[in-house]
Amino acid sequence: MKRIGMIGCGHIGTVHAYALAQLTRAGLIDAALHAVYDPDADRAAKLARYNGGTVRASVLDVLDDVDVVWITTWTDGHLPAVAAAVERGLAIFCEKPLAPTFDGCERVTELLARVPHQVGLVLRGAPVFATVADLVRDGEYGAAQAVVLRDDQYFPVQGMYGSTWRGEVERAGGGTLIEHSIHDVDVLRWVLGDPTTVSARTANRFGYPGIEDTAVVQLSFADGCQATLVSVWHQILSRGSSRRLEVFCEQAFFHTDDDYLGPLVVETSDATTEIVGQAPDWAASLDVPEVYEKAVAAYAAPSKAFLDGLAAPGGPVSGWPDAHDALAAHRIVDAAYRSAADGGRPVALTSGAHPA
Ligand SMILES: NC(=O)c1ccc[n+]([C@@H]2O[C@H](COP(=O)([O-])OP(=O)(O)OC[C@H]3O[C@@H](n4cnc5c(N)ncnc54)[C@H](O)[C@@H]3O)[C@@H](O)[C@H]2O)c1
């Protein structure tokens, strides 16, 4: 059985630990939480008490006693933890964003490429976006012409996130665009491919230097397709994190207000239909209260896929998306920030891998 380490026992570390513990209990993975660390000892103790593993005194104490590690520290903690884990040849699940700066993202990518790894861009596991990617790529309804993706959540230094580091540019790298909408940029690139130019405008009204709370990004593609991302951190504390995606192809309009199962509404000249995404069959064997089912499935599925790949008959393989996919999304985000700093002037993108 593979021994799992957890470096960082805050919000997302706890979500991952809960999902992993469920997978272990259901016999769906041959792996279990073994060792955990967080400088906040209470957080580490709580995570281990409910999900398994023992609390260790340092990052290295964990890394020296596990086979695979989840790196779920705040963003500027990813690079040193990844470097130490790579030194030990461990398989790594690294949270997004890879690092606060693009240079740091390149460094994390170089390191992760040396070991089996996966990045926590979990929207790629959402059935509704997989359906959109399939429909657009199949071209059944003609080429994609225009896409609008709106992502909003309340400014996450409060409420259930309660993470002051998200207000500090050195640790977070920026605001709503890099910290939250790196997921959206990754989805847009997955569905549409690499853009040729990026332009953006950002605004900062809540008083956290370098932490934009509003970002509007325009992506232009070689075939003329245009995508607009609207990313907002507001102060509506009653409103949960939410997304709306609209895609116009030549012969169909798709839209969804849910970022996991949908439904995806597909409107053509002939009919309007709904495609409801399906969680993996095995999700039914998890012992999870109904209210948590969506969140747990959204994180359990990528984790299970990663661990399945580590146990592949031909030897361990990296999961999907990998660090190169993540770096390509960061390249777009970096271009957007450069555009915004230059009054919204379009920035040409000359390099970037093709979508997986
Ligand atoms: N994939 C997703 O859907 C998703 C969702 C939320 C957060 N995230 C990412 O996960 C990371 C953590 O976010 P969060 O919401 O859990 O933040 P958080 O503040 O709730 O937790 C971060 C934890 O990391 C700990 N930490 C800091 N340095 C550490 C170190 N060297 N070793 C061990 N622990 C350390 C902190 O004490 C804290 O408990 C961020 O990069 C964030 O962007 C991803």
What amount of the residues lies in strands? 15-25%
Compute the average pLDDT. 96
Architecture of the largest domain in CATH?
Answer: 2-Layer Sandwich
Write out the CATH superfamily name of the largest domain.
Dihydrodipicolinate Reductase, domain 2
- How many H/I helical runs? 11
Distance between the termini: 30 Å
Provide the number of structural domains.
Answer: 2
- Rounded to an integer, what's the Rg over CA atoms? 20 Å
The counted number of beta strands is 15
Give the strand order of the largest sheet, numbering strands 1, 2, ... along the chain: 14-13-12-11-7-10-9-8-15
- Briefly note the structural class of the backbone: alpha/beta
Taken in chain order, the helices and strands follow as: EHEHEHEHEHEHEHHHEEEEEEEHHE
Shape: globular
Flag low-confidence runs: 352-356
Question: Fraction of residues in helices?
Answer: 25-40%
Name the hetero compounds present: nicotinamide-adenine-dinucleotide
* The first-level CATH class name of the largest domain: Alpha Beta
